[in-house]
Amino acid sequence: MSVRAVRGATQLTSDTREEMLERVTEMVTAVMTANRLEVDDFISVIFTATSDLVSEFPAYAARRLGFGEIPLICARELEIDGSMPRVVRMMAHIDTDLARAEITHVYLHGAAALRSDLTKVRSVPDE
Questions:
Q1: What's the CATH number where 51 sits?
Q2: Per the domain annotation, does 126 fall within a domain?
């Protein structure tokens, strides 16, 4: 087993608690599925959110998925002129047999435009 990092990001259409929980749950679940991970494979997760998201902590969605014993932290994303609004990002440290090049990073909804060079998962269109 090796320690690897896996990235994810998603964009919300509006800052509501319901959408925060839905989109972060979707992102974390997609990272797990794409990399064949279980909760016990996670060492820690860092979530960041842009300053326009204040309705809920992103980590709460992971806690609801069973991440109660995994160290989680939320932080504020840098405020850079022209940056994408309403984005939650994650960087998870995991135990895995996957080689670095085999890790699948997941960028959903509008956030798929952030790192098309990294993600192997198709974007999910907003409805």
A1: 3.30.1330.40
A2: no
Model confidence over 21-36: pLDDT tens digits? 999 999 999 999 999 9
Can you give the chain as a three-state secondary structure string? CEEEEEEEEEECCCCCHHHHHHHHHHHHHHHHHHCCCCHHHEEEEEEEECCCCCCCCHHHHHHHCCCCCCCEEEEECCCCCCCCCCEEEEEEEEEECCCHHHCCEEEEHHHHHCCCCCECCCCCCCC
- Please give the Cα distance from 120 to 122 (Å, whole number): 7
Residue 120 inside a domain? The answer is: no
Residue 127 lies in a domain: no
Count of domains forming the chain: 1
Q: Would strands 42-49 and 72-76 be described as parallel, antiparallel, or unpaired? A: parallel
The pTM of the whole model exceeds 0.85: yes
Residue 121 lies in a domain: no
Q: Are 42 and 124 in contact (CB under 8 A)?
A: no
